[in-house]
Predict the 3D structure of the following.
Amino acid sequence: MNVNRSDDPPSRVGDPVCPASWLDGLILAGGQSRRMRTPVAPDADKGLRDWRGRPLVDYVCRYLRGQGIDRILISANRHPDAYARYGQVVRDDADLADCGPLAGILAGLRQARAPWLFVLPVDVIRWPDDLMGRLAQAASPDHPAYARTPDGPHPLCLVVHRSSAASLAAFLQSGQRQAQAWLRDCQARPVDFPDPDCLVNLNTPEDWSRWEG
């Protein structure tokens, strides 16, 4: 396999072993963490909160590094100095403020240097070892690939080509915001993972308590 960072890669990312040099990583940490807020922590920033002794963003960074990703982008609209310890911070465009995680993906696609972007939310604490490789095998430049478990789709765990920035920008500018609607529009390919707990999200204080022990 000829592994390079060409802007004109093959129609698929490739062989059973994913060429990590074709991918940048993007961690989505740009939300408001509203569901994690409590009277004790009214301004919680979930990605910087310690879980088992380390901030959540640190876990995702280590996972991406372990997958061979050299360049990590972090979509963060608050506390940029804190997140900059873990990667290059990218902010949502000013005209897409409060547009949700798709605005973060668009910002990442516009800053990507590699042809492909491997996207993960900051609040996922478990990942299959073959997540990146299987998503990369399923993706093509016109069709992102995203994870699906028995509990449902995980539309923000995906591999997407840098050329998708234009269609995503048009989708957002039309007033749409839902990740699954965008994935339907571009005929994204689901990749099934049989373990319902292989992609655990910490969305609420109750989730946090359940998985922290």
